[in-house]
Amino acid sequence: MKYLFIDGRVGPLTIVSGAQGLESICYGHHEPEGAVWDLGANAAAARQLDEYLCGNRQNFDLPLAPKGTLFQRSVWDQLVEIPYGETRSYGEIARALGKMGAARAVGMANNRNPIPIIIPCHRVIGANGSLTGYAGGLDVKAQLLALEGALLTKEHTATSNTRGRSTFAHATL
User: Fold this and answer.
1) What span, in angstroms and rounded, lies between the C-alpha atoms of 169 and 34?
2) Counting beta carbons within 10 angstroms of the beta carbon of residue 162, is it exposed (0 to 12), middle (13 to 18) or buried (19 or more)?
3) What domains appear along the chain, each with residue ranges and CATH number?
4) Residue 81: Cβ within 10 Å count
5) Do the beta carbons of residue 93 and residue 124 sit within 8 Å?
6) Annotated catalytic residue: which of 121, 142, 145, 150?
């Protein structure tokens, strides 16, 4: 495993990759056990995240290797099908999987998504249009949806972030 820290518009992120591709993105700086710092192995992911967070990228082109159950991976496959700037409810994802009544199970799989932003779990909202839990916090979820131009409920508007352009914390490209 190889990792890289970046500081971006949504705060610090840890990018972790393995032999098969990107394995996780964690909010905050977390040194994964047994992993080594490697800019080269994670440069494409860091660059594409920076482009996305600056509003210059709508789709990611990276090999992904998330670890999860078959059901979780099927949910995550549905998440990557949600177009930039659009949202889906947990129930809509469950119906797309042919699992009527599995909205809560979809929510749990969404919660376990190891690659937020790139596997866009922030695009999943409550059936009534409300924002629901997010690993980076609801303010970050609102910020990502606002970046994409997705409609938000009145009580959940994006917070402005004045940190400027994303920067790499421990490396320059």
Assistant:
1) 21
2) exposed
3) 2-53 (no CATH), 70-148 (1.10.10.10)
4) 10
5) yes
6) 121
Residues in the chain: 173
pTM: 0.85
121 noted as active-site residue: yes
Residue 171 pLDDT > 80? no
Residue 170 to residues 43, 47, 165, Cα–Cα distance (Å): 12, 14, 15
| pLDDT (average), residues 131-136 | 89
Phi-psi region of 14 (alpha: psi -120 to 50; beta: other; left: phi over 0): beta
- pLDDT over 70, % of the chain: 87
Residue 153 has pLDDT above 50, yes or no: no
For helices 70-79 and 103-111, what crossing angle results, to 10°? 90
Residue whose tokens read 């659009």: 86
Give the model confidence (pLDDT) of 18-61 as tens digits.
999 999 999 999 999 999 999 899 999 999 999 999 999 999 99
What does the buried/exposed string (b/e) look like for 25-56 if buried means 16 or more CB atoms within 10 Å of the residue's CB?
A: bbbeeeeeeebeeeeebbebbbbbbbebbeee
